[in-house]
Amino acid sequence: MGRGKLRIYLGAAPGVGKTYAMLSEAHRRVERGTDCVVAFVEHHGRARTEVMLRGLEQVPRREIEYRGAAFTELDLDAVLARRPRVALVDELAHTNVPGVRNAKRWQDVEELLAAGIDVVSTVNIQHLESLGDVVESITGVRQRETVPDEVVRRADQIELVDMSPQALRRRMAHGNIYQPDKVDAALSNYFRPGNLTALRELALLWVADRADEYLQQYRSEHRVSKIWGSRERIVVGLTGGPEGRTLIRRAARLAEKGAGGEVLAVYIARSDGLTSASPKELAVQRTLVEDLGGTFHHVLGEDIPAALLDFARGVNATQIVLGSSRRKTWQYVFGPGVGATVARESGSDLDVHIVTHEEVAKGRGLPVARGARLGRSRIVWGWLAGLGGPVLLTLLLSTVHLGLANDVLLYLALTVAAALLGGLYPALASAAVGSLLLNWFFTPPVNRITIADPRNMLALAIFVGVALSVASVVDVAARRTHQAARLRAESEILSFLAGDVLRGETSLETLLERVRETFGMESAALLEREGDVAPWTCAGRAGSGPPVDRPEDADVDMPVGDHMALALTGRVLPAEDRRVLAAFAAQAAVVLDRRRLREEADRARALAEGNRIRTALLAAVSHDLRTPLAGIKAAVTSLRSDDVAWSEEDQAELLEGIEEGADRLDHLVGNLLDMSRLQTGTVTPLIREIDVDEVAPMALGGVPEGSAELDIPETLPMVAVDAGLLERALANLVENAVKYSPDDRTVLVAASALADRVEVRVVDRGPGVPDEAKDRIFEPFQRYGDAPRGAGVGLGLAVARGFAEAMGGTLNAEDTPGGGLTMVLTLRAVGSSAPTSRPATAERQAAL
């Protein structure tokens, strides 16, 4: 039996209608006689979606009990036993409750597909694993439930369920997505127009790329070489010359004229490496094309025009942009050039643009590496063999007559030996000296320069030609070997720099030390100045050499922009090393800019946090603190009034109001003081071993009697905590839970052991909190939903999490099965390996 087919309905956000579209498709298939069942579909209380389930066979769900609560999940075994033709499985990225065979629902779907069952599923764009960081930067919410992109990409069909942000917000406002009590919070947070527009763009682009993959696959399978202009793709042919920047900008302007235009810059290098472009210039052009939204490609090809056309047709390009040739007029005798050849061979499906530039007809020389590459000792032996060898061989052959042919071969062998030892110039010297000695001593007439027999002249010519050829081959091989070793070293260095750019881990001093070590310098310094006439200042330095006040005073200086330079002392670098040094210099400037931006961001964040806390504190003082003060003052004024004779009951009621107001003030001021201690890092817990049941009852003292109950087993292990901090944290959690729970439902405080941890769960049955707000409720001065102003300044949960982390624990929020919110306080059990005391620093609190 073959593998089943997967169809996915993809949406930009909850509520766009993915489940509704999936159920509509199911009804159509059932009407056609297809055996289709509902394996797992969640309607989330939406009436229209629930109606669509009617008339469809539903496989009973599997019930699982976890941590005292009952959950329902997809019954994979039941679906496999039923073996329908098509199974509907909602929420592909869902995480299964522990106890199910697979941790993720997409793994259940994989089993169904492997069994030959077709699956129809749904997923939102924010649940794709590769888009987690992007979605978090847009919405501020990190998605905990994700599905690997490859799972979705392997789907046989992907259908986008699209809806404009305005229509989705109207649907939300009408109560068609969330319950009415959650609509306002959702519209003002996750479902803001900007968020929805960005998520919609992500979904559209992702599906468009997937459609492009389908198109490329179809063209490859059906061997379609003709270009299909579904959208403008412009290929820019680069030579590594300075005109490349002009070509890239021209191509970008062409791409902007059409919807969905794309620029692909390509540099085609010969595999033999005989011609090479400037790596520095190519790096600049790569950065430029990527800044303009295009992509850069490096391709090997012997025939450059053919390779360029093959690349363009392979990516389904519609246009090619080339620069006018830099060759001089006389150079056209060697061929028509790349531009003319590409234009002639492009056919009717590719438009070729020849762009003029400032470098036209200025010539393009080929860089040739010069200098010795064989080592000093080999060169010395080569010259000895090239000059002294022919003389010694002549003396030897003067005593032993072997004939002219043998004499030529011996001199040729000596020339080859000189070439192998010393390279080109010793071989040339050996050939010249050897040919003269052969002519004078062994070629008739002897002791004369003239040659009587034309055949002897031919032999000498062949001798010189072979000697020159062998010498050239040895010299080229030596230079290529040196070049390969050098390029490998450069690639390793540049790879190191690229890794640092991606990770952002290297500091400026570390990078400068790396520069100093790489080039064997005494010191390396990054100098900068504010203007052309401003003095130079040192931004960073490494090494023990003398300080440098100006780039001109250094042995080597590499400018970075107009007002920055990398200065090295120790020795003068050869020109070929400056290429890698330029990469180091650019990276040093990037590291310096990154460091300063990080410092500015930290300062701005600290100022913003301080302003936010001051603003919230003023609001708290102006309202939340003044309200109980006003009540106390009014009660005291009434009691002191001589105009009214208060009864004992009235006096007791007024005194009770004073006491409640004072308690409320004490609670608010206590939380404010606790938050200030956490912000300044002065909380140092005194860790000792205690039982949770010793502290938990005292934490219930601030709530009405009967509003909370304890469920703490006597067999629970002891925990390593600060008793005072634990009591304060639990008291804040219980008071918060009681505040939001219905009057007829009690708050449950339960504890259980889990491996080397102890979990204390505070469970309420209130309205609950959506996933995107679960982290935000722990921030200082945050109230969720429509909490009245008199409910507090919003510090209770922030203080509780701060105290939990100060004791080495964690505090997180989870949904209560059946509705509500559960606060999970995790503590270290006695015997677990962890530090016994650590202060809650301001840096850690910045994450609250």
UniProtKB/TrEMBL annotation:
Membrane topology recorded in Swiss-Prot or TrEMBL: Multi-pass membrane protein
Entry's localization field: Cell membrane; Membrane
Listed name of the protein: histidine kinase
EC number, UniProt record: 2.7.13.3
Coiled-coil blocks: none
Organism, scientific name: Streptomyces tendae
Pfam families, per database record: DUF4118 (PF13493), HATPase_c (PF02518), HisKA (PF00512), KdpD (PF02702), Usp (PF00582)
Keyword Transcription regulation: no
CDD domains: HATPase (cd00075), HisKA (cd00082)
InterPro entries: HATPase_C_sf, HATPase_dom, His_kinase_dom, HisK_dim/P_dom, HisK_dim/P_sf, Histidine_kinase_KdpD, KdpD_sf, KdpD_TM
Keyword Metal-binding: no
